[in-house]
Amino acid sequence: MLNPPIDVPYMVRFHRGVYSGEKPNPRQLSALKNVNVNTVICVDGAPPDVHAASSLNIETIHIPMHYGMPSEETREQLIAAVHHGLTKGGVYIHCHYGKHRSAAAAGIALLGLNLADRDVVKSKMELSGTSKNYTGLWLAVELQEPLPAIPENVQFVELVLPEGITKNMIAMNRAFERLEEVKNNGWNVPSSHPDLAPAADAGFIAEMFRSLQLSDEVNQYPQDFESLVVNAMHHASGLEQALLQNAEAAELNRYLNRVEMSCIYCHDAHRSRTVTTQMILQ
Fold this sequence. Notes:
The chain is an alpha/beta fold.
């Protein structure tokens, strides 16, 4: 851990000047600035706090990651972003929880820059609390090799706006379908589809709701819509944590039912405004 510690949950020092952890609030950003962190890289789907960071002259770079194996393009962006940040001082990488994607991103970048040993990176991920259930993140770190050259002409973006509600809802529907498939197999990943990752799908659903809550689109709906979105987000997060903790099937069923019912209630209440969204939640 960082010594002396800064009060950011799950903050871990991966390398001299490279840290991973939870999304920092303005006070925590100020503390990071005091230890020469001048670049914040957000790998969450929800946008970083650009306003708070810019007020402290901290650059933000937004590279959204899912819980699976990052694409080659995403890995190269991460490596280039950390290299860029280290030229200006320290780098802080965050996702939502600060345990999974941010830790993997730090490991990928440091391995790509040949600044860290693979076993050390893995131990840092374990210290962060990166779940073994997110096999794609661990595989990315296992396979990442030093790049022969830092990618040039990478365009860094401070904020990637969430995509439209209809597209996000369709993507969530596919995640629900995958969860139902695992549920129907007693909450075990079926041998016919070993690629299914239920915790990652639950986390993805929670993240989509977080992105929706923070988007301008939420203002186009009645006031209760945001409350419904927040409730669904909390239920999805609860399901994700229950899956990571290998909860009993009955408990997982209850969590999934809560998410589905919150979606159904919201969809019924606001169907006329989201008529193109096909949520199949029987």
